[in-house]
């Protein structure tokens, strides 16, 4: 499987993106770096043996900045690395696309170039959150700040299909993010969504409070993009806070340092499980192609993980399988 990678996307692009592509290529993944060719090749030249790796470079002269309006940038910058990369996917030059750049522009390009899957009104971005046991897929995490109940119903189907085919969960449990477990709790949106999910044929387990998301109450949690994005970034901040507190406590006294030395392997494993760079990018579900979005501050390890996830999605035919599930659920028009 060949993954097109936005070489100009991310806070440290193209240097870190090229490094991540080299890591992925050394694992055997075929990569197409899309961006300003002289810059990309300049960084590639710094890796001995890079010319023997399965890496291609496709020139794209323009770059979409993180602060640019997504739809406007996509319309005006047709030779940007994002648009060129998505078009490469559309035209069959790649099997998946990954970008750590402007996520709104990635979504806009995917909509304009690839289009929605049949029956999908609004594609969504999903995020995999690691748990003590397994993981939970939260959808949406930022693509759709304002939603209707029908949108959240579709997010439930898209999320369930993603967990079923990417992680082999035969009948994923789907929960609705709410401020209480009771059916009558919540705002108008979640109250209107609850009966739709209950009658959807999904394995709906009811409302899920924020504290229960990380306790594994569901395999998929559905919410609007505004709430999901706030929850995700709060979780990222809490992770950094907790790791910092543990690190500070261990270093505060000599005998704590000794205990820390004994605990170091376990602490490293816990940190690894929580490390976003281990879990690939966030999939854009509901479009006609395997598209993954990385964090803007992604390092090389995160880029390589994103390429790995995108390649796996393409290999298993994720998009086609999701479409099949939507058809079976009678969601296609």
From TrEMBL:
<keyword id="KW-0963">Cytoplasm</keyword>
<comment type="pathway">
    <text>Lipid metabolism; phospholipid metabolism.</text>
</comment>
<comment type="similarity">
    <text>Belongs to the PlsX family.</text>
</comment>
<keyword id="KW-0808">Transferase</keyword>
<dbReference type="GO" id="GO:0006633">
    <property type="term" value="P:fatty acid biosynthetic process"/>
</dbReference>
<protein>
    <recommendedName>
        <fullName>Phosphate acyltransferase</fullName>
        <ecNumber>2.3.1.274</ecNumber>
    </recommendedName>
</protein>
<dbReference type="InterPro" id="IPR012281">
    <property type="entry name" value="Phospholipid_synth_PlsX-like"/>
</dbReference>
<dbReference type="GO" id="GO:0043811">
    <property type="term" value="F:phosphate:acyl-[acyl carrier protein] acyltransferase activity"/>
</dbReference>
<keyword id="KW-0012">Acyltransferase</keyword>
<keyword id="KW-0594">Phospholipid biosynthesis</keyword>
<dbReference type="InterPro" id="IPR003664">
    <property type="entry name" value="FA_synthesis"/>
</dbReference>
<keyword id="KW-1208">Phospholipid metabolism</keyword>
<dbReference type="Pfam" id="PF02504">
    <property type="entry name" value="FA_synthesis"/>
</dbReference>
<comment type="subunit">
    <text>Homodimer. Probably interacts with PlsY.</text>
</comment>
<dbReference type="GO" id="GO:0008654">
    <property type="term" value="P:phospholipid biosynthetic process"/>
</dbReference>
<keyword id="KW-0444">Lipid biosynthesis</keyword>
<keyword id="KW-0443">Lipid metabolism</keyword>
<dbReference type="GO" id="GO:0005737">
    <property type="term" value="C:cytoplasm"/>
</dbReference>
<comment type="function">
    <text>Catalyzes the reversible formation of acyl-phosphate (acyl-PO(4)) from acyl-[acyl-carrier-protein] (acyl-ACP). This enzyme utilizes acyl-ACP as fatty acyl donor, but not acyl-CoA.</text>
</comment>
């Amino acid at each position: 499987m060949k993954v097109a990678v936005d070489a100009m996307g991310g806070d440290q692009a193209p240097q870190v993106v090229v490094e991540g592509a080299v890591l992925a290529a050394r694992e055997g993944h075929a990569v197409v770096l899309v961006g300003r060719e002289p810059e990309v090749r300049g960084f590639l030249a710094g890796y001995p043996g890079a010319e023997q790796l399965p890496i291609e470079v496709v020139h794209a002269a323009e770059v979409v900045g993180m602060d640019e309006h997504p739809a406007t940038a996509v319309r005006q910058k047709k030779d940007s690395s994002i648009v060129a990369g998505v078009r490469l996917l559309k035209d069959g030059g790649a099997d998946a696309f990954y970008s750590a750049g402007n996520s709104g522009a990635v979504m806009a390009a995917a909509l304009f170039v690839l289009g929605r899957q049949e029956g999908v009104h609004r594609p969504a971005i999903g995020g995999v959150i690691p748990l003590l046991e397994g993981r939970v897929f939260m959808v949406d995490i930022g693509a759709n700040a304002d939603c209707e109940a029908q949108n959240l119903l579709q997010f439930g189907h898209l999320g369930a299909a993603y967990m079923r085919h990417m992680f082999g969960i035969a009948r994923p449990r789907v929960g609705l993010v709410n401020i209480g477990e009771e059916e009558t709790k919540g705002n108008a949106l979640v109250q209107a969504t609850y009966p739709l999910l209950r009658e959807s044929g999904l394995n709906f387990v009811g409302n899920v409070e924020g504290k229960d998301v990380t306790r594994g109450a569901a395999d998929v949690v559905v919410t609007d993009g505004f709430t999901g994005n706030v929850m995700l970034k709060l979780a990222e901040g809490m992770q950094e806070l907790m790791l910092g507190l543990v690190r500070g406590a261990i270093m505060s006294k000599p005998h704590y340092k000794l205990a820390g030395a004994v605990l170091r392997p376990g602490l490293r494993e816990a940190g690894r499980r929580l490390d976003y760079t281990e879990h690939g990018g966030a999939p854009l579900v509901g479009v006609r192609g395997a598209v993954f979005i990385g964090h803007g501050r992604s390092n090389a390890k995160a880029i390589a993980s994103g390429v790995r996830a995108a390649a796996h999605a393409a290999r298993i035919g994720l998009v086609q399988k999701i479409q099949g599930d939507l058809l079976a659920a009678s969601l296609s028009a």
